[in-house]
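Collaborator request, handled under Task 6.
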Amino acid sequence: MPEPLHALALKHHELLKFAAVGGTAFLVDNTLFYGLKLTILEPKPVTAKIIAVLVATIVSYVLNREWSFRTRGGRERRHEAALFFLVSGVALVLSSAPLWISRYALHLETPEVSLITQEIADFISAQIIGTLIAMVFRFWALRKWVFPDEKAQSGSVDQAA
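Structure tokens returned to the collaborator:
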């Protein structure tokens, strides 16, 4: 790897790992969302989305804890997990809101629109817009509250003393 690219990768290693975990969670989310939405939860796309996000969130916690942010933290695991799932609950609302708006506020569902329009609107609102909003929120909130940098916190305490 060229040196400037290597230096950039080292500088943003947490973000890159977070993105890889996010990609994995995105695949889990999409697979479950469409698997449920196109079968047993066809009339309930928001319920399908919520279930898919919950499962993807569990996968995300394990991978973020053990890989992305393994050098951060220091909290008791129960406390850390509770904060993670609280942040993820807020992210769940953020990721589901665009789909809810698309379906129920904008009425982008059959018979109001064609099936292809409904499916494109679902994909864009749930899987693109909702995921991007939740991703930005999660990265910020996980670094700030769930997996804080102990060195930065202890450094600020030392400076204050």
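The cover message to the collaborator said: "The radius of gyration is 19 Å. Confidence is low (pLDDT under 50) at residues 155-161. Please let us know whether this matches your experimental observations."
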